[in-house]
Structure formats: structure tokens, C-alpha cells
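Researcher: Here's a chain I'd like modeled. Treat it as a single chain, no partners, no ligands.
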Amino acid sequence: MKISVSKNDLENALRYLQAFLDKKDASSIASHIHLEVIKEKLFLKASDSDIGLKSYISTQSTDKEGVGTINGKKFLDIISCLKDSNIILETKDDSLVIK
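Model: Modeled as a single isolated chain. C-alpha cells:
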């Protein structure tokens, strides 16, 4: 997966998804956000086993489609600290690179 997205769009989507994450166990998959890139859209899903939310944001560019998960709280914390208006998300091996 390799995409470019608006920081504001991504940050807003992540804020909405926080309510649907399991906060008791940060290592649980229920505390992660599922990311999936299809064509020019980034789909984000979160579920705490009782209820979930699926949302999407448009990408500014999509170089490669793909899927992955990342801890939702940590992801929001990282994105919130970035100053750039555009963010590049890229998977390399088993890692997500955020630029």
C-alpha cells in the first residue's frame, strides 16, 4: 500500500473511529484500525466486538493498493503531531511507514 492523503481528512476520520476501539487491551486486534486501499479510497474500520464503524476518505494519490492494521490510538497520536498537510502512508514488509 502506498498513498497520499490529507492530514485533516485522516485525522478527522481517526477521531470518529476512536469511540469504536477496545481501550482495555492495546495489543488486542479490537484496539486496531483496519486500513484498506481500493482505487482512490482509504477505507478505515474499527470495532470493539459490540459495535463498529466503517468510513472512508479519498486519497490524493494511490500508487499501490493494500491492507493492514495499526493501533488506533497510537496512529491518531502520530498523525496529530505531524505538521504537513499531506501524509504518505506506505507499507514495507510488515511495517507502516508514515511520512
